[in-house]
Amino acid sequence: MNNIAFLFSGSGSLLESVSELCSDLINNCHLKLVISNNRDVDLDKLHIPKGTEFHIIDHANYQNRLEHESAIEELLMDNDIHLIVLGGYRRIFSQNFVKKFGCITINTHPSILPSFPGDKAQQSAIDYGVRCSGATVHFINNEVDQGPIIAQSIIEVKMGTQESELRKKITNTEKYLIPQAIRLITSGKISFDGTNIVYHSEINESLLYIGK
């Protein structure tokens, strides 16, 4: 059984899709740990299964980034985590964290990387006038939003689309994309060696792309 940790900074809107995935034993994964750095999160709206640990590790309570990361690392190790899922987690990890956990950490980003990395990706896409956007799930490395890509989704951006509308559409595709990426990893079909994704078996390319 693969123990999964889910980290988020916002409302935790992507947590439910991971929770549902882990509730099905056929997927060979268990949502063991949920961590947020958002002390104002609405706990009543979080989909945290019974038996899953939940912690708020607010970075504002620590002297620096390394101390904050150390608190997170301790929880990850205590819970024997095999896969870390960053679902709207807005903190950038240090090289030390990446060295320890990068090979088992995936992130979702609201754009078709390598286009529009970093913050405010949805508004940047609208400002540039792109006609399609989407989401990317990738392993992390020492460069922000530059890790090897696991899977992507694509959606149409119509003229006049507002940022809030695009954000909602992308979030909806992420709810399908993240479980897809998790299945590829927990089933042993792919792994990350720190530089490249290693494919251990033939993969249907439809699993790597979601079109809307």
Automatic annotation (TrEMBL):
Signal peptide: none annotated. InterPro entries: Formyl_transf_N (IPR002376), Formyl_transf_N_sf (IPR036477), GART (IPR004607). One of its GO terms (molecular function) is phosphoribosylglycinamide formyltransferase activity. The keyword Protein transport does not apply. The keyword Transferase applies. Pathway: Purine metabolism; IMP biosynthesis via de novo pathway; N(2)-formyl-N(1)-(5-phospho-D-ribosyl)glycinamide from N(1)-(5-phospho-D-ribosyl)glycinamide (10-formyl THF route): step 1/1. Keywords: Purine biosynthesis, Transferase. SUPFAM superfamilies: Formyltransferase. It comes from the Bacteria. GO terms for biological process: 'de novo' IMP biosynthetic process. One of its GO terms (cellular component) is cytoplasm. Residues 3-182 form the Formyl transferase N-terminal domain. Its EC number is 2.1.2.2. PANTHER family: PHOSPHORIBOSYLGLYCINAMIDE FORMYLTRANSFERASE. This is Phosphoribosylglycinamide formyltransferase. It comes from Vibrio spartinae.
